[in-house]
Amino acid sequence: MNWNFSAWAIRNPVPPILLFFVLVALGISSFINLPITRFPNIDVPVVAVTITESGAAPSELETQVTKKVEDAIAGISGVKHVTSTITDGSSVTAAEFRLEIDTDRATNDVKDAVAKIRSDLPLTIDEPVIQRIEVENQSIVTYAAASPGKTPEQLSWFVDDVVIRALQGLNGVGRVERMGGVEREIQVRLDPDRLAALGVTAGEVNRQLRSTNVDLSGGRGEFGGQEQAIRTLSSADTVQGLAETRIYLRGGRQVLLAELGEVVDNWEKPRSFARLDGRPVVAFSIYRSKGASDTTVADRAAEAVAKLAAANPDVTFSKIDDSVTYTYGNFESAMETLAEGALLAVIVVLLFLRDWRATAVAAITLPLAAIPTFWAMDLMGFSLNLVSLLAITLVTGILVDDAIVEIENIERHIGMGKKPYRAAMEAADEIGLAVIAITMTIIAVFSPVSFMGGIAGQYFKQFGLTVAVAVFFSLLVARLITPMLAAYFFHAHAVGGPSFGRLLRRRLMLLAPLAGLAIGVLFAIAFLPSAGPDNPVAGALGPYAAMVPALSFDQATELSLFVMAGAVGLAILLAYLGMPHPTEQSDGLLMRAYTSFLRLTVRWRWITLAVGIGLFALSIDAVKYLPTGFIPKEDASRIVVSLELPPGSTLETTRAVTDDAVASIRELPEVRSVLVIGGASPTGTLEVRRAALTINLTR
């Protein structure tokens, strides 16, 4: 079989160039549009059933509600685990299915199972809420709103009606959740003595208010040749209107609601609170939708919050929690590592091949292989996250391997006296199958990682495929672009010429005057501030003195040493690169050392084999001493603390305890702010004796 695609690319250079021009353009476009997230988007089928009953004790909910729901869910096909959490008035049952089960199907199965036992559940419970749980759906940014001129009810209504409406309309925002604040409530406070005097009970008053204070649809009717909707409007528009509602008593009597007590526009008893550094606030967390970018959504939200702050100067907004900074920091760090790795790979090629043309070709292959990978990631629905960026940075050195193999073999054929065109044709044909085999081996090693089972497989799916795609593009570059560039760009090396010592002297003679000139300029800059106004040099250079930073003589001396060292180092590098290349029949110093060591290992082959087996066994044994874990520890400059008080504790007790804890924590100089969400744990358990503390540290 003829694997020499390179010969076709050398004879027809235009199609490969156009192919990679298109691939690079697609890669750049995809890189700009790829979402930046902290972790990959995973799909774990978890469905939660939430049932609430006001005033119910956990023991009652366990026997009357939770056990029946668990029994119904346990019979569904594909259920892996069933976990229930019961608190006062609330029962939450979470069912985890096997990964191969479709989440939508699992949700429908749970709804059907709960519907079958709905008649067996108590009539006093609220309607069960069944929803899928997004495992990776965590808030990306949290803001706090404060306004001294607004009551808690007014500020909460402002956040619900203005802020959340504005943010939920942004592209990429999944939901906005308010924390803290209060809910508006119209309270009817009945007078027991007045009820007893009139012979009416609170239940009768409640029944009449429910039946009369409501708007109902009355169907449709034709009036004047036009069809109009008929509505029965009887709900009160104001508190005063509700207070004037007539309550009918036995015996044909009637009284106003205000005569039975008072009607107050207030708020319901809080079951949670939010406090920032001991001050009450109304906080709201922003969640991104699945597939959206953390950074893009956070930027849009920040812009919208800034507009809201400008339109409402009486309300102060402050960012109190932010996971996007850490995510974007990881992205920038990965990009810097990628650039550093590419630069180091090019430097290594330059030092070993000692040919700037070959180094330029190797440098070109890196972006040609890496950039189209982003296009493939976009097609597969991947994002720029910790796992995919790890794959990109890890594969940096591998991307240039195939090109180095091709370049070195072409260089060898050129050293045999062949023209670059012929050398590229024959060298590429000679090792074409070997290069393909190397690449396919790497793909075969990394691809199975993407098909692991369990949660780990969901996370590492992007790792293996990203490496495999990048290596595949490096193969295309090595077989199509590298030989073609070598055929038209390489030149034969000089096999004779001056020695290293002579070249070093020439380079030093060339660079020494330049270094001396630079040192003179440094000392001139240091001399200018101390020169008098009558000095002709100072007068001539005076207008330019303000354009350069001030230097002392000590600083000038230190910089002069750096200039001298740089000149010597550059001279050594240029002399090394300018040395004549050895002929094909002779090896360099490094190759002679390697072959000598190789002869030694072959001569004592049994000892070599025993040492290899011993090192392999030692490595396998050392695995048990390595720490294990799914995700390594990270420093996100934030700590989340769960606080739980004894059963029976009130919300006021929780607030007092958390205030004391915040006061102690704030004494640490490394603490920037502390956000307390009372009435809920970090895992989402709602109970007044629990609290979640988010401690933001200085960066």
The residue-averaged pLDDT reads: 83
Give the DSSP E fraction (strand runs of 2 or more residues): 15-25%
Which stretches are poorly predicted, pLDDT < 50 over at least 5 residues?
none
Please indicate the count of domains. Answer: 7
> Could you tell me the radius of gyration in angstroms?
38 Å
CATH names the topology of the largest domain as Multidrug efflux transporter AcrB transmembrane fold
Per CATH, the class of the largest domain reads Mainly Alpha
Description:
Helix 1 packs across helix 15 (420-446), helix 1 packs across helix 16 and helix 10 packs antiparallel against helix 11 (356-379). With 699 residues, this protein is of the alpha+beta class. 53% of the residues lie in helices and 18% in strands. The longest helix is centred in the last third of the chain and has 36 residues, at 454-489. The mean pLDDT is 83. It folds into seven domains: 5-40 and 327-489, Multidrug efflux transporter AcrB transmembrane domain (Multidrug efflux transporter AcrB transmembrane fold, Up-down Bundle); 46-132, Alpha-Beta Plaits; 141-184 and 273-324, Multidrug efflux transporter AcrB pore domain like (Alpha-Beta Plaits, 2-Layer Sandwich); 186-202 and 241-267, no CATH class; 500-579, no CATH class; 590-624; 638-697, Alpha-Beta Plaits (2-Layer Sandwich). The chain crosses the membrane at residues 12-32, 334-353, 360-377, 389-410, 431-451, 463-490, 510-528, 559-579, 600-620.
